[in-house]
Amino acid sequence: MRIWIISLGLLAVMGPVMAKMFTIQGDTGRNRENHPIWSLRNASNGNAVILEPNKKLSINFCLRRESNITIRDFRFSNGNHSENVMIEVDRVNIYSFLSPEDPNHNWSRFWSTGNLNRRPLYLHMGWHTLSVRFNGTADGLAIDHILLDIEDEKLTDDIFTCQLTCTADQDYNVRRNDVETEASFLVQESYKTTCPEVDNINMPIFNPSVQEYEITAALPHYRAFTNYRTENTTGCPHLSPFYWSFSNVLLPSKNGEILNSNKAKLVITQPTESTNSKIAVRIILFFKLEGKKNGMIDSEMGTIFRVRFDGLTDLVQLKFSYKGRMAETSSPEMRLLLPSKREAEWNTRDFSWTSEDYNVIIMHVESNSTKPLHMEHLSLERRPMLADKVERIYKGDDTIVEVVFSDFWWLNPDSMTVHLAATGRSYHNVSYFRIYRPIPWNGGYAQVFVLYQDGNARLLPVPPEGLEWIPFGSSVIIGQTDPTMVRPYASITDAYIDATNLGIELLYKNGGSSKLKISSSLSETRVTVSDLFLTQDPVIFPFTTFRSMYVAEGNSDVDSVLVNGDHPLHIMGNFNYLIGRSFVFRRRCMSRHLMLSPDIYIDVRRTTNAVDRRDIVSSQPFQSLLQRIQNTRYRLWTPRLRYTYSRT
Questions:
Q1: What's the superkingdom here (predicted)?
Q2: Averaged pLDDT score across all residues of the chain
């Protein structure tokens, strides 16, 4: 339950434990246009709206679902005679009261009514209007705020103030009415995040008898004409390329001095070998980096180690070496610094560091300077990514196919080879390929399908008229994955593309295979996956996995899942698994993150009907898997990297 204050000075929301404040200023918008604004000493934010006799003050608000609301308080000032005040919701009188008379005409004296409706008012989702009016001849009523108690813990101020709207749940026209298939199991493996660029929604789908399924992308059901499509790294501190840094280190220092940053330890020692230099110290840095096991690429990519001194008066000699993934320490690399050249840097190659143990950097510093050395800054950062290399391998009247080679691919040395039937040519070390279809209204082309080497597929319908492109959002892994991994994947070795008929055959590293058929219309893009050859136990290795993002209402790529076209549940719902033949992943509420990215439908079209679902649920392997997933899920409430490549 949350508490909202609608204020013509103030709007606040209170959570179950502590208040969460949101402000609507009284002297802005239509309030200034339609009503006087007075500055009053005891008003919540210094201003109050003056409601004049025989006029109505209306405040719009929106709900994301059917909710009970209670008017907890109405704060006002009545600097003259007593008046009969009426409060309405959607033109229905909710409460009337007689305001107190103030013979001193003190407008800065405010009154609070407390609870106005003893029983909560039940309102449907959508747009509502709360109105205040009174009949009389007095100077008016100074309204400070109205306090509402709304039973919806996920309601946000953007939704409440109708800046973002939500759509009602509805039956989806999933293509299952003409088929009888064995039910599938969707398992909840999602975790909380503050970063919109993290795939924290993870839902593997299991069906040991699956033979064919469809993935469909369609525009959201809400009506929006704003095409938000840029990334948002707010709440994503882990996406910074800087791993750690130290500043203001004086040399020489006490032997064995230790400095700590949040991610590294620096130790200053005296070198064991003799030296004729006046200053001779050894700096040892210990640090850990996360790798594939944690869904990260920090230990995989090359790095830049930088050192900067301040106020040098003499020559400084630096020797850099490191120990990471290899058993031995690297050969030293020397740099010389002068008063005119006070900075140095060293590059390490990709796959130099380890994620299994501490990495070590060793730097020897020598100088004949008569003054202490001031090391102003030293740091380690991820090397910059080079731009993708794109090659167009097919262009027909209504289809374009491109292969893309990334500067760094997170699953290296795993790689994908793309074979094009039209030319007989093969393209090696492809990170992903993309397929374009024509846009009828502007003569251009738009991406409708992208498939990455790790099995992640992204689909888009053709953009609406007036737009040249809309963003991808959610993705689906086509292929079997390990559902307990932080970043699941299905490593593809070969993709055979028939560009003329939009057919694709996939071969996987685990020996499995499948066939894809793409169809794209003005309303949707559909991929039919058939001829599945699953080499891993289908009871504990899903045949597909839905991946997406949810931070909060209005900041998500998905917020609901529907089973068999109905039975909506929140995407972060506390369920272990759901049973159904089709699953719709949609947004009920608009989002400022990739607003027009599509809803995704996954519909199982054909099974062998050889397995009783009750046997699967009760089986020891499936129950053990659920326990492993739950144990993993609750350890993952920290940000994880979504993708290193562009999401557009």
A1: Eukaryota
A2: 85
Is the omega angle on the peptide bond into residue 413 within 30 degrees of 0, that is, cis?
yes
Q: How is residue 598 annotated by DSSP?
A: P
Q: Which tokens go with 234?
A: 């707010």
∠194-197-200 over CA atoms, to 5°? 65
| Cis upstream peptide for 483 (omega within 30°) | no
From 1.10.1760, 1.10.3470, 1.20.120, 2.70.98, which CATH number describes the 184-234+386-633 domain? 2.70.98
Q: Tell me what the mean pLDDT of segment 345-352 comes to.
A: 96
The label of the residue with tokens 């010389």 reads 336
Provide the CATH number for the domain formed by 2-160 in this structure.
2.60.120.260
Q: Which of 175, 187, 115 is nearest to 526 (CA)?
A: 175
Q: What is the CA radius of gyration of the chain?
A: 31
Query: SS3 for 285?
Result: strand
Q: Is the pLDDT of residue 263 over 50?
A: yes
Report d(CA 45, CA 207) in Å as an integer. Answer: 58
Side chain identity at residue 556, one-letter code: S
| Spatial contact of 76 and 142, defined as CB atoms under 8 Å apart | yes
What's the token pair of residue 148?
């509402």
164 three-state secondary structure: coil
- CA pair distance 124, 127, nearest whole angstrom: 9
Long-range contacts of 390-398 (CB under 8 A, 24+ apart): 391/427, 393/418, 393/420, 393/423, 393/425, 393/427, 394/420, 394/422, 394/423, 394/497, 394/499, 396/499, 396/500, 398/437, 398/438
CB 303 within 8 A of CB 292: no
Q: What is the rounded distance in angstroms from the CA atom of residue 593 to the CA atom of residue 200?
A: 15
pTM (global) more than 0.85: no
